[in-house]
Design brief:
Blueprint lengths: L11 E5 L28 H13 L4 E5 L9 H8 L5 E6 L8 H6 L4 E5 L5 H8 L4 H13 L3 E8 L8 H7 L6 E6 L16 H9 L5 E2 L9 E4 L6 E5 L12 E4 L4 E3 L8 E2 H6 L5 H9 L26 H4 L2
Parallel strand pairs: 1-2, 1-10, 2-3, 3-4, 4-5, 5-6, 6-9
Antiparallel strand pairs: 7-8, 8-9, 10-11, 11-12
Helix pairs in contact: 1-2
Amino acid sequence: MILDKYNRIHNYLRISLTDNCNLRCFYCMPEENYSFMPSAQLMQADEIKQIANAFIGLGTNKIRLTGGEPLVRKDADTIIKSLATFPIKLSLTTNGVRLHEFMDTIREANITSINVSLDTLQADKFQLVTKRNNFKRVWDNIHLLLENNIHVKVNVVVMKGINDGEINEFIAWTKHFPIHIRFIEFMPFTGNRWMDDKVFTWQDILGTIEMKYSWIKLKDEVNDTTKKYIVPGHQGTFAVISTMTSPFCSTCNRMRLTADGRMKNCLFSKGETDLLAAFRRGEDIVPIILGNVQEKAAERGGQFVEDYHQLQAIGIENRSMIAIGG
């Protein structure tokens, strides 16, 4: 069992396969000409399996593959099938562009739930946000997952003045499809041009929805990052991830491995532990894992002030989102 000093059990590992991506979303990637890590610097497929096995031996029962975009990695198929042999719940977060190429692998790995990032339902705005013309492909692939009875969670980073006017269009999508929309408050990372006046809050989101729909609060699970709701009569549901205004840190069970094998005990942690280097030296990484989690701050990496309006994003010590993994 992996415990931190606040007695939070950590049994959920997020593994970034690459910092590369086939989209160029401004809030995730610092600049268009971002320099990606060389292949030799990344955890190799066999290393991912062995390091994951160490976490599983400590009680980890859920692993999510992230990026960058995990499905652009050439050996993503091999890694997915390898991890699927473990007694865990395996899932992934993707931008959806290449999902149609991996349907056989997804079925073989018995993946039953996938998170797809999609910040707009407008093709022209999709190109503006991502700098790529892939909206129809992502839309079709989401519905391909639904047709294959795979639960789809759509991650929507809500940014004031950019896509906050589409919130009820996403809610309308849940009427006839069993899709789960997750509205995410805009969070600061290195180089993502975060400003407090771009944050559309949990309260703002619910207020916007109330203009058109009534909703019922659903029961949240113990380690949920979301506050879940349903519009009566709709097949799907929606939720809000309120990191900026109402964090869920007190029940956090998450650990992260960056693509270059550095362990982060929080999305916003300053420190990292080079697990891959220790593994390659033949060291026992179990005490290193336990030590990293013991250093976890009580809330949001110990870097955030209570009122996000007072937050100076330039002072946050962290990587860019694409270099951390979602």
